[in-house]
Amino acid sequence: MHFEFYVLAKYYPVLLKGTLVTIEYTLIGLVTSLIFGSIVAVLRSLKIPFLNPILVAYINVCREVPLLVQIYFVFFGLPSVGIVLSAPEAAVISITLNEGAFIAEIVRGGIQSIARGQWEAARSIAMNTLQTMWFVILPQAVRKVIPTLVGHSSYILKDTAILTVIAIEEVTSAAGYINDLTLSSLTAFGSAAVIYVLLFWFCQYAGSRLERVFAAGGAPRWN
Fold this sequence. Notes:
This protein is an all-alpha fold. About 80% of the residues lie in helices and about 0% in strands. About 30% of the residues are buried.
């Protein structure tokens, strides 16, 4: 078995299409999980008595249950109770809930890192709790954790490979299709591996650049 370049030359449009789908779901998943996770982080930081236990349970469940199981539950399990979702809808919801749990903890850590004096200063100019969180605390917290969030995007990128189980035609699915047609496993999945590495390197590069721009101080985490 060896790498067959003629197979790659013939089927590269399939891989290119899969790559674009992977990038699409990575970006959508990053945006939706960032928004959802930030909302959860803010609500947890406010420590609302009746809501906090629910949020803690959500974070623990989504962080501990594999994403594959969550996708199966959303796509195959929910129809049994009358909730039928398309594959793209199930994919976005699953990624958002799963990654949102991790991002919530990242953002909450950023919120907790803000000096207490910021809260007191905001109150001194008659800001209420929500105004203080939205206009003073959250912008500083997000600024601090932007490099970590960009780094986390690599996990979302890798998680998109699982979407092949619900027939989302991303890179892994495209590689499987090429392998089924040509029986050239090394070429198909080797090419997919190279694509993932290149996309991961781009995420690393973006994280390094953003850390130089937004980090509060210190050397970048990535060289």
